[in-house]
């Protein structure tokens, strides 16, 4: 039988394959951090959603643990070129937090910010509909500190720089406000399927 596997060499477990210009990193999970990895104890970690919302909210580790948990099984894509197939994360869907704070009708964007100061901007539409999480675990184990533990943002349908590690909160806005990489020439949205790497792509 003639099986067409495409140009990736390895089929993606759950996803549609390799976006343009990406390569399969195999089992490797590179660490990409602009900061020194902070040692944040779960007891010291909090997540806040504020800005243009009816009711700002702050959740601590225990409160997030009591929220309904869900899973992402699929691929991640870093703008430097590597993609990783078949990752498994669990955590809490951002829909849960956004439903609680109730964004204003005028809200269009968010800035995600980390406990270290890293920021990334995202359209609100990319954070809803079961496509974004506060991830607490990977492959059934607590998220390692170098990968953003105790908790990171996970928005796997966009380039992975949007998935802020050591996530501290989301500021909900009625305009787009460039984050750390976006101020340095990277694309405002970062859709890997449209190869939105740099502003102007
Ligand atoms: N706080 C913080 N989050 C971050 C980054 C960072 O430097 N700091 N790098 C981003 C980039 S460019 C990528 S590819 C992923 C890397 O996540 P990983 O180190 O778990 O692979 O985290 C993203 N989130
Ligand atoms: Mo990246």
UniProtKB/TrEMBL annotation:
UniProt-annotated stretches for the region Disordered: 1-21
Oxidoreductase molybdopterin-binding domain residues: 37-181
Lineage, uppermost ranks: Bacteria, Bacillati, Actinomycetota, Actinomycetes, Kitasatosporales
Domain of life of the organism encoding this protein: Bacteria
Protein's organism: Streptomyces tropicalis
CDD domains, per the entry: arch_bact_SO_family_Moco
Name the UniProt record assigns to this protein: Sulfite oxidase-like oxidoreductase
